[in-house]
Known about the structure:
Two copies of one chain form a homodimer. By secondary structure, chain A is an alpha+beta fold. In chain A, about 40% of the residues lie in helices and about 15% in strands. Chain A contains ten helices and seven strands. Chain A has helices at about 15-25, 30-35, 40-50, 55-65, 85-90, 90-110, 120-130, 180-185, 190-195, 205-215; strands at about 70, 80-85, 140-145, 150-155, 160-165, 170-175, 200-205. In chain A, the strands form two sheets. Chain A has a five-stranded mixed β-sheet. The first copy, chain A, has a two-stranded antiparallel ribbon with strand order 1-2. In chain A, a hairpin with a 2-residue loop joins β4 and β5 (about 160-165). In chain A, α6 crosses α7 and α7 packs parallel to α8. Chain A is globular, with a radius of gyration of 20 Å. At the A-B interface, α1, α2, α6, α7 and α8 of A face α1, α2, α6, α7 and α8 of B. Chain A binds a DNA duplex through α3 and α4.
Amino acid sequence: xxxxxxxxxxxxxxxLAYALDVVGxxxxxxxxxxxxxxxxxxxxxLDALPGIGTNLLAARLASLVDAGVLAPTxxxxxxxxxxxxxxxxxxxxxxxxxxxxxxxxxxxxxxxPGATVRASWAVLAIEAMVDAERAPxxxxxxxxxxxxxxxxxQVSAGQVEVRSGPAVDPTxxxxxxxxxxxxVGMRQLDPIEALVSGAVAVEGVPAAVTRCLRLIxxxxxxxxxGRSAALGPATA
Amino acid sequence: xxxxxxxxxxxxxxxLAYALDVVGxxxxxxxxxxxxxxxxxxxxxLDALPGIGTNLLAARLASLVDAGVLAPTxxxxxxxxxxxxxxxxxxxxxxxxxxxxxxxxxxxxxxxPGATVRASWAVLAIEAMVDAERAPxxxxxxxxxxxxxxxxxQVSAGQVEVRSGPAVDPTxxxxxxxxxxxxVGMRQLDPIEALVSGAVAVEGVPAAVTRCLRLIxxxxxxxxxGRSAALGPATA
DNA sequence: CTGCATCCGCCTCGATACTG
DNA sequence: CAGTATCGAGGCGGATGCAG
Lengths: 236, 236
């Protein structure tokens, strides 16, 4: 028999309150983040969320399955795990929006020094940074290799798509360790400096670098000779 | 002297985790929701958030001011309260996205029966429902009067804006009590039925009703004569 | 009266141990 | 591997106190 579990609720007839009743508790949105780019097993989720505790993960998963946000993949498979439902995938955009806020906040204030870094976060970061409005006219693909993680951004007819895995024929390949990658994203490491110091390596069509930087918002404008917005003294 | 307060953190170099470190705790996003449409006093926030507890509200406000999400308005004014900063306003879109998720979830599952209803939530609901892609060709304004709250949606050259307060010359005026309004929004009360029963009253240009319903996603398509998408048996 | 701080009971959370 | 059981610590909710 299903135990009668009382859930804490805001008890407001408000769409946001209803959403937070489902995904507002601690760890919940991070679990969904892990599932955004494919199904994951219980153990993988535990490893990706240091500090969550096994009971809490189990409780969250059960609650989210119950809410229709995610579902077990093939109950009888031993390879089974959890995947997002259509409803769960509708959280993709709000998560990207929150990520943009997180980046903006971290740009203003500092980043936590001892925080654990995972290359798989980089996909989300790029998704959040990409502004389709600034997509270049030309169709091209930028591949990123952050630690062992590989993904790419494909621009095609003004449409921008971010996918995990390698690209077929990337215009550009960007290699970086996860730490440097995030420091560039948080505007705490200038992309040009990162290139010079070797923390970030780029390979491919040189002219595409500017277009890529513009697409992900790291270059404010088409660089006018003599004054680049990306160049400047380190912010105190 | 400011007491040394330890904040619980996810400790991940991830934009989403950083965001949730700031706005992920209980009540925080609801506080920001209250401030989305103008500054509010401490007492107003307390009244708008039943169950929060005075100490927690004070702690959240201090934490958010510290994070640069909101700021006190005119410290020396007795009318002073709290308002969003630019950084705080950047949470508008993610909040709308979460609201859309909340509406979708509540559409599938039930709504909480005894939940408190406030007309001011209606503005957010309309904002979340509006899809600028479906804006009509004509420029017109739809005014909503939900309980004592009045706001309007203005369509101008394909741009859609939701503002509080009355419109100058609304094409349409929709009147409803808050409960019926939300039941329609959550797809638990058919808009046509609501009109017939009198729970929702409409006044103005009749042809604008269809365009308004399409704009806020309550009518799937341009109604073809003889078969309206909004008409149908109650979903079991 | 508003804007908080303090105290207390309870529930959630985090960590470990344990089971199929 | 995939959870369940247990327990201490801390965040939360409610009542009350207090200063401006």
